[in-house]
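Notes taken during the Thursday session

The instructor put the following on the board and asked us to keep it in front of us for the whole hour. The protein is ATP-dependent RNA helicase. We were told not to look anything up and to reason only from what is written here. First, the residues (872 in total):
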Amino acid sequence: MGKPAEHRGSGERPDPVRSFNRWKKKHSHRQNQKKQLRKKLKKPEWQVEREGISRLIQNYEKINVNEITRFSDFPLSKKTLKGLQEAQYRLVTEIQKQTIGLALQGKDVLGAAKTGSGKTLAFLVPVLEALYRLQWTSTDGLGVLIISPTRELAYQTFEVLRKVGKNHDFSAGLIIGGKDLKHEAERINNINILVCTPGRLLQHMDETICFHATNLQMLVLDEADRILDMGFADTMNAIIENLPKKRQTLLFSATQTKSVKDLARLSLKNPEYVWVHEKAKYSTPATLEQNYIVCELQQKISVLYSFLRSHLKKKSIVFFSSCKEVQYLFRVFCRLRPGISILALHGRQQQMRRMEVYNEFVRKKAAVLFATDIAARGLDFPAVNWVLQYDCPEDANTYIHRAGRTARYKEDGEALLILLPSEEKGMVQQLLQKKVPVKEIKINPEKLMDVQKRLESFLAQDRDLKERAQRCFVSYIRSVYLMKDKEVFDVSKLPIPEYALSLGLAVAPRVRFLQKMQKQSTKELVTHQADKVGEPGAACLTNDEVEEFRAYFNEKMSILQNGRERRNSSEDRLSNDTSDEEQEEEEEEEEEKLGKAKGSQIQSVPGATEAQKIKEVPVEFLDRDEEEEDGPDADFLKVKRHNVFGLDLKEKNALEKKEPSKSKVKKKVTKVAEAKKVMKRNFKVNKKITFTDDGELVQQWPQMQKTLMKDTEEDDDTGGINLDKAKERLQEEDKFDKEEYRKKIKAKHREKRLKEREARREANKRQAKAKDEEEAFLDWSDDDDDGFDPSTLPDPDKYRSSEESDSDDTEDKISDTKKKQGMKKRSSKVEDEGPTSRNRKKAKWETLEPLDTGLSLAEDEELVLHLLKSQN
Ligand SMILES: Nc1ncnc2c1ncn2[C@@H]1O[C@H](COP(=O)(O)OP(=O)(O)OP(=O)(O)O)[C@@H](O)[C@H]1O
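Then, after some discussion, the predicted structure tokens were revealed:
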């Protein structure tokens, strides 16, 4: 093949193998020559890299934001671009487009963009490029510090960094606490890019000897406004003190801080402020549908349950205001079995558990995550359909971050906010001001499932769960009480007893801070009134004014009074800080006084069943099959589009107000009135009676007064405490007790003497029998001598005191006396023995106190004479 036909026949065909070998030789020679030439011309790798870097730096100035659509349009290193491509990031988002260029140019940047818009890459790409530019190595130490407000967010950022930076040679570390500090300290010095939480970082700055940040090139604050707010202020100040002033700083958040003070603290140099959605109509993603419902506090659990039942195939996050709420409701909902897997994430969990939950929720397709605000910022759980804000967020910014856990990067999502009637006005106003488009929707009352009874039964069976419910109760009320925005959060408007019932608690636990608040407001009121009275020319209070004051006071204090009433139940006592019992007692005393001052204004807690009735009005009980699917319940919130039933919760509540239930119109009963009622009926409250073995009745509580004074009956009718009378009565009681005690002791002594006499008589009889018996006894005493231990002897002092204190021990003491008599006998035997042994025994006995037989002197003498006689 390949040769002309005429040559074939002639036989001069060249050998193809030979010609190939010839060609091969030539070719390889040429290749070798080329190689050698290239080798001569080739620059070292570092040099090539450096040249590449300088080309990149030159291109930084040429970056034109308008021309950028892809990451590759930026002058980025091949290693970074490769990492981005491998992670499927090609097109840039708006915040990435606008900030990466500025950051590459070495400027300080404040970047703000809606949730889920890709801020993480907007700072990670410049981070990698910054160190690449400087050809950073592990020996150069810490080059970039990325601070996140929560452990989960730091972990997530670290994971993204690992993904996009995998082609670089830098070392990256995650320092978030919950792990061994020593273990971290060993590695921290080799880390080039450190992702951390503020607290743990400061701990290392303080405690890890070799750790320093003197070479730091860049500081990144993710969720900057959160990190710079009051909660982290001190920690951040301390961290910043340890950082070099000459560095680049990047701040990112969906809700940006503009506080000049904060920025000055961070020593930013002419920062570039980039708020990509500043001119957008809304501050939340366009793909996020946002609604709110208004419902009573006591209905919330049922609303949540009904919501979950109607979204069984969705992925949702439910936000609560406190860890203890999450802890309790997580347990309760697991028991309620709504038909969807439930997870809980809060700050009181162990770090390992937090990570497990985080990863589990990332993996799940349909699940619900009960979380506190630690999950509100930055977390990027994939494909979350719903965000339900069970408790009203602290402010509009918190709302934006929470809601932003759904509808991320071009995805759809829905957010539902549950508001109490008292929170609605203030919160909705704030949201609208922040350009958050929220609409009110209604719950379909027919789909609302009441779970209170089930909760009650869970709590009746499980004491631990009950305690959790109590903690949840206090914790929620405290969270409302501590909120800064008093226009939205008014603790005095919370229906406390009804809320307790809705958690399954029959009695609302005591809430100490409310009591303190009560005291404070009382003081304020009193001073206010006193000022009024003290004013020159101020008229004395009229009856109307007194009534007005009462009404005002009543309204303000009703919650606190309810709390105090409940506190009387010892079983349901729940103290927030149980450290100071005395103080508690003082407080109780003061409150007693306060109670007296308030007189008949004290409002009683509505009975459990009554409150339940009120609560149950708008709720329909639907006993549904646990395993029911999405279908039948799916229209739980559909009424947002059409209020098909023409009746919403608000209207129902209004109806309720028009036709108040019996419990509502019921006259308020004061403690005094209740006590009088009880007395009239001649009841004895809280009386504990036990029966002795002989069937005798013994009243254990309240302790019976033994010295009944004649005027007791009269006194009781007057109500209150007459201190003088009480004192007298106590003294009388004291005398009576002493007298009784003396009698008891005398009787005991008498009994003892009789027994002794009896014993002596017996002994006389026996002596008369024979001397042999006596010798036998003495022999036994001698045999036992070696094993004798003086410590077994009764302590005469003890004997005396115990004799006085406990009559039940009489028998033992008598036997002790007998032993002592035995000892006396033994000692007389010792007299008969040789000098050495006698001395030894003596040494033993010398340590003993003179024995007290418990007999009178005459009787003792008689006994001794008798014994001597019998020995002779
Ligand atoms: N250029 C991109 N191309 C494709 N996906 C991207 C890009 N940038 C970011 N994403 C994806 O968008 C999602 C949201 O990104 P990111 O978590 O950075 O948002 P964020 O703005 O920081 O949100 P938040 O304000 O809630 O913290 C992530 O899943 C991320 O992988």
